[in-house]
Amino acid sequence: MKKKKPERKEWEQFVADWQSSDHVGKLAIANSYGVRYDTAKHWISENGASVTPQPTMTLTDEDILRYKPEINLDFVSFDIETSNLRADFSVLLTAAIKPFGQPAIVFRGDDYPEWETQRTNDKPITRDIARELSKHAVIITHYGSRGKFDIPFVIAKLIKHRLPPLPNLFGLDSWRIAKSTLAVSSRRLGALGNFLELGAKENVEGKLWMDASYNGSREAMDAIVAHNVVDVQLLENLMSLVFPYTRSIPRA
Q1: Residue 205 exposure: Cα atoms within 13 Å on the Cβ side
Q2: 33 and 2 in contact (C-beta within 8 Å)?
Q3: Which residues contact 183 (CB under 8 A, 6 or more apart)?
Q4: Residue 153 · residue 95 · CB < 8 Å
Q5: Element holding 148 (H helix, E strand)
Q6: Of 168, 131, 133, 128, the residue nearest 150 (C-alpha)
Q7: Is residue 83 a contact partner of residue 93, using CB atoms and an 8 Å limit?
Q8: pTM for the full model?
Q9: Which of 8, 49, 51, 139 has the most CB atoms around its CB within 10 Å?
């Protein structure tokens, strides 16, 4: 087996083969001469032949800024309003998803054409809510995590309408944090907001839910949406205070 450095025309062919080969090819060339890869590489550098650098991926700042991740690693407050507390006896009326420090993204049933003649068909609004939630990483709710209300309600509707499941999101429930941390008489969102001076939660009469659900009242829906938006803002304020007492962030 060869162990001698090639010369003249054989050397020129050796360099040409080396430069045109990938790492595996270079190993094979070195092996054919009975030497190690580092020895063959040294032969080239020792004789002034340049070693072709391995290609690397180079991105400019402009290139990087054009990339948009599918999931935003942020916190969003989430709250829904429904005609009843059980998914099989209820329809989704509105939902508010508020990215931290940004305006709430609002979904309302009366924005969909089904509202006029098929008010019980909440598939389109369920689909759009799930799509927006899926863009984010951590969902903040109040009594809304698994086993409670908001997330299980949406999951029930997703399954009912044969829609894709939510991805593996993380969830923070301010009710759970308050339960384990605060010795207060009530852990309802409004009571906590009053106690911590975060702003009052609006009291909305049940008649509005009746008017929205059964009569399709736009005015009633406006009031429910306003209530929904206040809730997610209050929820964000509350989580800003109790988050330091969070020991872990479980799956939503």
Answers
A1: 4
A2: yes
A3: none
A4: no
A5: none
A6: 133
A7: yes
A8: 0.70
A9: 139
Query: What distance in Å separates the CA atoms of residue 172 and residue 250, rounded to the nearest whole number?
Result: 7
What whole-number distance in Å separates Cα of residue 167 and Cα of residue 198?
32
State the Cα torsion 144-149-152-155 to the nearest 10°.
Answer: -90
Which SS3 state, helix, strand or coil, does residue 106 take? strand
pLDDT (tens place) for every residue of the chain, 252 residues total: 566 788 888 888 888 888 888 777 888 888 888 888 878 887 877 775 554 444 444 555 555 455 555 556 689 999 999 999 999 999 999 999 999 989 999 999 999 999 999 999 999 999 999 999 999 989 999 999 988 999 999 999 999 999 999 998 899 999 999 999 999 999 999 999 999 999 777 667 788 999 999 999 999 999 999 999 999 999 999 999 999 898 888 888
Q: How far is CA 139 from the centre of its chain?
A: 9
- Of the candidates 137, 148, 155, 152, the residue with the CA atom closest to the CA atom of residue 175: 148
Angle among Cα 104, 110, 116 to the nearest 5 degrees reads 170
Domains of the chain in sequence order = 1-56 (no CATH), 72-245 (3.30.420.10)
Backbone angles phi, psi at 99, to 5 degrees: -60, 145
